Amino acid sequence: MSQLPRPAHTRRLRSAAVALALLGLLLAPAAVPSAAAPRRPAGPGSAPAATTVAPGGTAALTGYAIRSAAEVPDTAAAVSTPDYAATGWHRAGPRSTVLAALVADGTHPDPFYSTDQQRIPRRDFAGPWWYRSDFVLPGTSERTSLDFSGVVSAADVYVNGRQVASAAEVAGVYTHHALDVTDLVRAGTNTVAFRIQPNDPRKHLTLGWLDWLQPPPDANMGIVRDVLVHRRGPVSLHDAHVVTGLDVPSPASGPQSGPAELTVKARVRNDSREAVTATVTAAVGGAGIGGSGIVLREDVTLRAGETRALVFAPDRHRQLRLQRPALWWPAGMGPQNLYGLHLTAAVAGSRSDSVRHSFGIRDVRAPLNSAGARQYTINGRPLLIRGAGWSADELLRWDTTAAEDRIKAALDAGLNAFRLEGHIEPDEFFDLADRHGMLVLPGWECCDKWEGPVNPTGSGEKWNAADRLTARASMAAEAARLRDHPSILSFLIGSDFAPDARTERDYLDALRAADWPTPVVPAASAVTTALSGPSGMRMTGPYDWVPPSYWYDKREGGATGFNSETSAGPSIPTLDTLRRTLSPAELETLWTSPAAPQYHRSPSPTYNTLKLFNEALTRRYGAPRSLRDYVAKAQLGQYENVRAQFEAYARNATDPADPSTGLVYWMFNSGWTSLHWQLVDRYLDRGGAYYGAKKANEPLHIQYSYDDRTVAVINRRSAAASGLTARVTLFDTDGTSLFDRTVRGLRVGGDGARTTALTVPAVRAAADRPDATYLARLTLTDGAGREVSRNVYWLSTRPDVLDYDATDWYHTPTTGYGDLTGLNSLAAATVTATARTTRHAGSMSTTTVTVRNTGSGNTPALLTDLHLVDGRDAPVLPVRWNDNQITLWPGESAVLTADHRTGDAAGAALRVRISGWNTPTTHITPSSP
Question: Mind listing the pLDDT tens digit for each residue in 55-92?
Fold first, then answer.
């Protein structure tokens, strides 16, 4: 996404016994040091504990003492000496930007509340900052190196008073560096110091925030990935990976079929000054291989300083041909089977170096269909990409638990992919994606330095020769880091614009050299390049408000082809989140001044107000009467819009002509507290946008089409479903039934197939029925009469009217609005509930709520919302509800379950808050078994 308006066409081992003993460890998480959840540093004047690196081991630096270089008069040699007194320095974690550390120790205010970020002076970050850390070596008999990436934007590096690299060499957040410091280290305490240069995404190949959020004052300068201290023997291993080849099974042959071949590759290097012979052992373990696993061995003789490529190939090692491999599948399509590789080099019977990581066997293809759209298949089965844009934390703080919570939330909403436009997360993110079955589309970002040579509307500077080297090194490093993760669906080497021919060749050469296994996409927009051909993507938006009916028209952002970023823009969070995000004055402005600039929307003048969204809300639902009324109407509007977007793409996925093949909802989450582009908010609370997506993406789903009034059943399960019954009932807002029809004996195939159940008649306003608003209730039951899908729509006899001729790069104007104001006249509904909380072994609990509409008339309880809250009525988060924001007619009931952490609220304080569009807010206290 660009901060500037774009032209319409650019939218956007020692022995075998040792090797065998290791096989039991192969499938455990790789032994890569990781950052824990962010912890509050001890504050200025304290220093992080020194990292001790055991013989033959690898350890990450535990943290840093940091300080502005302008406040440090001492020389670099002095700063990087072990006995230097870092008095008054700030403490930072092992992965930390400067601002993240200063916010954590209280130097600067929380930038996520109100306009507090504006109180942080940018001048504090205009010059370099020192990052200093100690590590302890018991001895120096082994070789020692520093291994890292993630420097923003560049750094001079010193060890024990000596410079080992310059900022010209250590430049770019994605470039990988391995610095041999053997001759500089000593037994005992050693010091490494980084003099970090300021970041400017317009000038450096790092990262920026485009129009997503208000950018942090430090522009994320710092070190945001682990710095590893490696200790090795004379022979080291590099570039270890597994190339997998799968005989793609037919769609009907099931989730575990088709033989596969594995090829294990690595580079072996002699770092000593004399010739050596190393024994390299490769051990592969996993499902389908057998208890003893695969153990391969080869002796390699190397001259002093020599590097040699080593390949264990199936033509020489028949064990690498797997007849029935355990395949990796995206969530919902099959299991997420993973294998483990452990590669070890031994010299004279002693371990010299080892590498361990996991990989998966899967086949990803993405040919262009007859309409020119990219159609992904995995292991031979087609899939509609139902994705969303992933955002890192604004301060680039990494929290594995929080990331896993978000991935689980996305999967629970029926999403199957994330797009990472830049901001390519650390290794743990991809490990989580592998384990949970979430596909990932990483790529470079638009509009800043990354697109400087090709994007005339962006802010990035043109490249020089050094930039080209940094770009190619970045591509090579990320390709090597990501290639063995089965969750990786593709790499997008361009975003709004494709790279120029020279850069494209550099990228493709780097990917090819890394044995990149999945399709490479030249851009997220509709472009064609000489080497990669057509992208098969389009970037037509929209990025701001459009009505639900928009998504059904095969124009602009409507449901056809592969739309790489698209949504109706604003996403107002829950009232709970708003109150912890905005000041009282800002809350008042939010609903009383529809066209006022909103700091928490975007820094872009295109998006810094909610004018389009607020106007549509008022015209369709009526002017808000209070903040609570505004938020309630926003949840209704977001629910219907997001649901329509995903439902339209699902319906059109099986069209014979110009089908939809993928969409990326822009976005899944925000890096800070935001009012737009999010399905979940900063605190992982979920409102209408999220539950609209969750409803639309049910595995077996009944849905209504805004364009032709058809009711369809979509089946995302692999097996066909039959014996289904669909019932559609239309109601006036006073409860009068306008239409009721049941269709039995429905059958629908699997893997996204659809069947049309019926067409609903048009409802027109009449003299005795002046209200333009009506409701549609859709239910789907199985052969045993169990309800398997339920969907309720609020509709209007007056259509929303779009002016396609006036479409610009971010939206299509609406010239006529549907009338949903009749919802304001819905009679109050009476909802009662009972609840019980069950504690499970470990840290999780489940609260089960039975909710019932006990009213005597025929008025539904519209969009009834359940929240777990504590004794102060604050939400207990995160929570996974099996369903929520449901609509019930009198006599109807539903059983909803909420999975949550047991410790998130004191048992007696845990309550269930029940509210809704026309339901008074009540609370109940769950019982315990």
Answer: 889 999 999 999 999 999 999 999 999 999 999 999 99
Of the candidates 481, 507, 537, the residue with the CA atom closest to the CA atom of residue 366: 537
- How far, in whole angstroms, is CA 35 from its chain's centroid? 18
Determine if residue 804 is left, alpha or beta; phi over 0 gives left, psi from -120 to 50 gives alpha, anything else beta. alpha
> What's the CA gap between 752 and 764, in Å, rounded?
33
Helix axes 465-482, 501-513, angle to 10 degrees: 30
Name, in order, each residue with C-beta under 8 angstroms of 555's C-beta and a sequence gap of 6 or more.
804
Q: How many helices (H) and strands (E) does the chain have?
A: 12, 51
Task: Tell me what pLDDT residue 46 has.
Answer: 63
Helix 427-436 × helix 400-412 angle, to 10°: 30
* Helix 688-696 vs helix 627-652: crossing angle, to nearest 10: 20
| pLDDT given for residue 25 in this prediction | 39
Residues 6+ apart with CB under 8 A from 2: 12, 210, 211, 446, 447, 455, 457, 458, 496
CA within 13 Å, CB half, 546: 31
Residue 153: asked if its preceding bond is cis (omega within 30°), the reply is yes
Of 495, 358, 378, 366, nearest in space to 433 by CA: 358
The encoded tokens of residue 488 equal 């990786």
Cα dihedral sign, 90-96-100-103: negative
The single-letter code of the amino acid at 537 is M
Distance CA 157, CA 541 (A): 43
Buried residues in 649-668 as b, exposed as e (16+ CB within 10 A): bbbbbbeeebbbbbbbbbbb
Q: Are 731 and 737 in contact (CB under 8 A)?
A: yes
User: CA triplet 881, 885, 875: central angle to 5 degrees?
Assistant: 60
Among candidate residues 755, 554, 807, the one with its CA nearest the CA of residue 660: 554
Contacts by residues 309-314 (CB-CB < 8 Å, ≥ 24 positions apart): 309/265, 309/266, 309/267, 309/268, 310/265, 310/266, 310/267, 310/268, 310/280, 311/263, 311/264, 311/265, 312/263, 312/264, 312/265, 312/282, 313/263, 314/261, 314/262, 314/263
Structure-token pair, residue 706: 């805004």
Q: In 3-state terms, what secondary structure has residue 24?
A: helix
Q: Which residues of the chain have pLDDT under 50?
A: 2-43, 906
Q: Which helix (H) or strand (E) holds 411?
A: helix 400-412
Pairing of strands 660-665, 561-566: parallel
Q: Three-state SS string across 819-848, please?
A: CCHHHHHCCCCCEEEEEEEEECCCCEEEEE
Question: Tokens 């110009």 belong to which residue?
Answer: 658
In 3-state terms the chain splits into helix, strand, coil percentages (rounded to 5) of: 20, 35, 45
Q: What single-letter amino acid sits at 905?
A: A
Tell me the C-alpha distance between 51 and 59, whole Å: 7
Omega before 878 within 30 of 0, i.e. cis: yes
- List, by residue number, the catalytic residues: 496, 565
Residue 133: which region, alpha, beta or left (left: phi > 0; alpha: psi -120 to 50)?
beta
- pLDDT (tens digit per residue) in 172-200: 999 999 999 999 999 999 999 999 999 99
Model pLDDT, residue 287: 79
The residue with tokens 């990988």 is: 176
Over the range 866-891, which residues count as b (16 or more CB within 10 Å of their CB) and which as e? bbbbeeeeebbbbbbbeebbbbbbbe
What pLDDT, on the 0 to 100 scale, is given for residue 903? Answer: 77
- pLDDT for 226 equals 98
3-state DSSP of 844-908:
EEEEEEEEEECCCCCCCEEEEEEEEECCCCCECCCEEECCCCEEECCCCEEEEEEEEEHHHCCHH
